[in-house]
Design goal:
The chain is an alpha+beta fold. Helices cover about 45% and strands about 20% of the residues.
């Protein structure tokens, strides 16, 4: 009796056992050893499945003495199991199967390795894009697509979402507040927020509204300084330039003062040349007379000097100039002027008026002449 491997399942079994206790195949009288490789095989096989050795050979014909001629049974040359322990050779069939199986396993593992690596690279790239995007939709998409991502990645993305949610809530508060201070505070707290562009636009609009409500040269200058690339900067510059053209400076005041001082000095001294050189040839209005001429002005001067008791007259502008400058179509300048002037009369009859004050409303034409002059005595 010998212990052999079951040719069916490979488990160890006695060569005298009726059946294999593992797989139930018949053993006793059903197996043999290959004379070439020593492998235990079923004795009804023609070839050894391991080395492909011919297990049964056909003998030469033989005479059985009774005149019968036939081939000798091949079984006569085959030894039953356990008789010969020939040297074992490598089992070629099983080796080929094993090699193929190993190659398949390697291919599977290599494929899994590369697939897993590609998935990890995709996840890492998606993670880096998400945390750098500052976009809630991108961050949420990452969480939806990579549920099995590393915990630290998912926690980081969730923290970004929470932070952006807080920033959005603060932006909503700023919008509801609607003041420049609220938007400036939001931008200061969140310098990298996606809402900062919108905040700048809102501040720009608020500053423009403030400038137009104030509607002064300085208000437009302040808007231009604060918003060099603002939405309304061109209009602000246009309004500023127009107001700048109307701004009365010291030179304007000097010219106005010089003209009216010369006019009233000529009026007081009876200087016809000086008086007429100060006024337009035809005045739009002089002492409420339309289209007055220089003769009308001279007639007025004669009337104030007519009383015989008057020794002299002195006019003294009080310097309370209110000047409005306008630019004409040809690029010239016109002035609207309001001021008061005192009239002092030296006369022999002291019972009569010796002092009075006039409120003067006048205009200066673009050629530097008085085109309108009306006076109203102020009751003392």
């Amino acid at each position: 009796m010998a212990i052999i491997k079951c040719p069916e399942c490979g488990h160890q079994v006695s060569d005298m056992a009726k059946t294999c206790p593992s797989c139930g195949i018949e053993i006793a009288g059903k197996v043999m050893k290959c004379p070439d490789c020593g492998e235990v095989v079923f004795n009804d096989l023609d070839l050894c499945p391991g080395c492909h050795h011919q297990l049964h050979t056909v003998k030469a014909t033989r005479n059985d003495g009774a005149g019968n001629v036939g081939a000798q049974s091949s079984d006569d040359s085959v030894e039953s199991v356990g008789v010969v322990d020939a040297p074992k050779k490598k089992k070629t069939g099983y080796t080929v199967f094993t090699v193929c199986f190993v190659i398949v396993l390697i291919a599977v593992f290599v494929g899994v390795y590369f697939y897993t690596g590609e998935q990890q690279r995709n996840e890492l790239e998606a993670y880096e894009n998400a945390v750098s995007s500052e976009e809630p939709a991108v961050l949420q998409t990452y969480l939806d697509m990579y549920e099995d991502a590393p915990a630290e990645h998912r926690d980081s993305v969730k923290a970004c979402l929470d932070r952006l949610g807080k920033i959005d809530a603060e932006w909503t508060d700023a919008v509801v507040n609607g003041t420049k201070t609220a938007f400036e505070r939001y931008m200061r707290l969140h310098p990298g927020s996606v809402h900062n562009v919108e905040a700048k636009i809102k501040i720009d609009s608020l500053d423009w509204i403030s400038a137009t409500q104030t509607d002064t040269r300085d208000s437009y200058r302040n808007y231009i300084d604060a918003h060099a690339d603002g939405m309304y900067v061109d209009e602000a510059r246009d309004r500023f330039d127009r107001m700048e053209a109307k701004r009365v400076d010291d030179t304007d005041k000097t010219e106005v003062s010089r003209l009216f001082t010369a006019f009233f000095n000529a009026l007081a001294t009876g200087d016809e040349v000086g008086l007429t050189s100060s006024v337009s040839p035809v005045m739009d209005d002089f002492l409420h007379k339309a289209n007055a001429t220089k003769s009308d002005v001279l007639d007025y001067m004669a009337r104030i000097h007519e009383p015989e008791d008057i020794n002299s007259i002195v006019f003294r502008p009080n310097g309370d100039w209110k000047i409005n400058k306008q630019e004409t179509a040809d690029g010239g300048r016109e002035y609207g002027v309001m001021f008061t002037v005192d009239m002092k009369i030296d006369r022999s009859d002291t019972e009569k008026e010796t002092f009075c004050t006039y409120k003067v409303d006048a205009k200066i034409t673009s050629d530097g002449k008085i085109g309108v002059l009306n006076m109203r005595k102020i009751v003392q």
